[in-house]
Amino acid sequence: MDKMILGEKAAFSTDCNETGLNNNVFVCGGSGCGKTLSITEPRLLETKQSSLIVTVTKRRIVHKYKPVFEQRGYKVEDLNYVNPLESSVAYDPLQYVASYSDIRFLSESIVMANPRKEKSTGADPYWDEAAISLCCAEIAYVLMTDENATLADVLAFHDRISFWDENGQIATSVDKKFDRLEDRDPTCYAVSCWKSFHQLPIRTAGCVFGALNTTIDTIFSPELREMIATKRQVDFEKLATEKTVLFVSTSAVNPALNCFINMFYAQAFKSLFEYAESRPAGWLPIPVHVLCDDFATGSRILNFPEYISIFREKRISVTLLVQSESQLESMYGPNDATTIINNCDTYLYMGGMDLKTGKSISERLNVPLDEVLYMPIGREYIFRRGQKPVATRRYDIMRNELYLKITEEYESKIRKSER
Questions:
Q1: Can you give the three-state secondary structure of 14-52, one letter per residue?
Q2: Which of 6, 131, 253, 393 has its CA 20 to 30 A from that of 184?
Q3: What would the pLDDT profile of 242-270 be if each residue is shown by its tens digit?
Q4: Residue 130, SS3 per DSSP
Q5: Which whole-number Å values give the CA distances from 385 to 196, 329, 382, 390, in the listed order?
Q6: Cβ atoms of 250 and 261 closer than 8 Å
Q7: What span, in angstroms and rounded, lies between the C-alpha atoms of 337 and 322?
Q8: Residue whose C-alpha is closest to residue 351's, from 329, 321, 383, 377
Q9: Where are the alpha helices (DSSP H) in 289-380?
Q10: What is the mean pLDDT of the segment spanning 293-316?
C-alpha cells in the first residue's frame, strides 16, 4: 500500500483495514510553512497504487512528476485552468448529466460557485433559486434539442438570450423555442423551469438574468469555453479503474478560476461516489486520493461536508491543505467546518498566526496557548484518532534520495532547454 508521510519519523500506512482509520488528512499551516515540500511532494513520491487528483498552483510540480508516474505505469492527465488550451483533457460537466436531478445539481453548482455568494450574509435565497431554475431551463433545453450537446452550447444559448418589457412581463428572444417545446410536451422539465422564470415581473426577471449572467462571465472565460468544446473529456470512472494521476492547475493570483475548479470537484466526488455505489462490492476498484491545495481559498465545494463523511467506505480520501481553521470556517460556516475537520482522522498542525486555530490546538494538546503560538518554525503536531498527539518536525524532503534524483533529472532538463 501507499505511505502517508507527515513528518520526521511519522510515516503511516494507507491501509484502512490495518489502521482502522480513514485516510482523510486535514493539514493546517500558515503561508510559507512548507505544505507543498513536506506534504504534497512526499505524497507524490509514495503513491504507487492509488489514483490521484492533485490541485497545484506551481506548474513545476506537473512537469517534474509526470515522467515519474509514467514510469510507474500511470496514465497522467493535465487539466490546466491557467492556460486551458494547453490541457491534455477538459472537464465538461454536461457529460455527466443523466437525470433531472443532475441538471439541478449542475445548475446549483454554477449559481453557487460565484465567490460573492460566500461573502454575502442574509441574502434572500429566492434570488438564487430563481437563477438556478433559469439555468436548469437552459441546460434542459439544449440537452433536449442537441444530441451532442456540450456546456459550451449551453453558454452560447445563454449568450443569445435578450429580453424586453411586454406589458410589465418579460418577453425574450427564445420564447418561441420554448413554445415549440411546450407544444410537443407541455409537462417537460425545460418548459416547467422556463415558466418559473418567465412568469416573473420584468424588473425581477432582469435581476435574476443579470445575476446568472454575471456568474457565467466570472467563471467561463473564452479560453475555458474553447477547452470544453475541443478537448477530450476527463473520465472519472477511469480514475477508479486505471492507475491515473490527474493534475489540476489553478492560479494563485486569479481566484475566479476557483469557481470552476470547485464545481469540478463537486462533480468528481459525486461521480466517484455514484460509480462506487454501482459496483457489486460498493467501493472503487482502485482507491482515489484527492490532494486539495489551498482548499478554503476559492468557493465552497457543493455538498462536500456530506460527501466527506462517507468517503472511507467508497475508498475515496482527501488531503485538505488550509492556512487556518478560521479560513475554513469563513468558507463553509462553523457547523460544516467542524463536520469537515471531524471527518479527518488525521490532523496535522504546522504552525501559524491565527489565534482561533491556536486556541483549538492548545485545547487538543491540553497545553498553554503560548506553547502553540510561539512554537518554533519547522515544528508540528500530528493528531490521529485514538492516539496521543505526536510532536515532531517537518519532514525534510532534502534527505530523500528519490526526491533528490527526480529533482536533479528535472533541473537537468530545464538547463538543457535554456541553452
A1: CCHHHHCCCCCEEEECCCCCCHHHHHHHHHHHHCCCCEE
A2: 131
A3: 999 999 998 766 666 676 787 788 889 98
A4: helix
A5: 49, 22, 10, 12
A6: yes
A7: 12
A8: 377
A9: 304-308, 311-314, 325-342, 355-365, 369-373
A10: 85
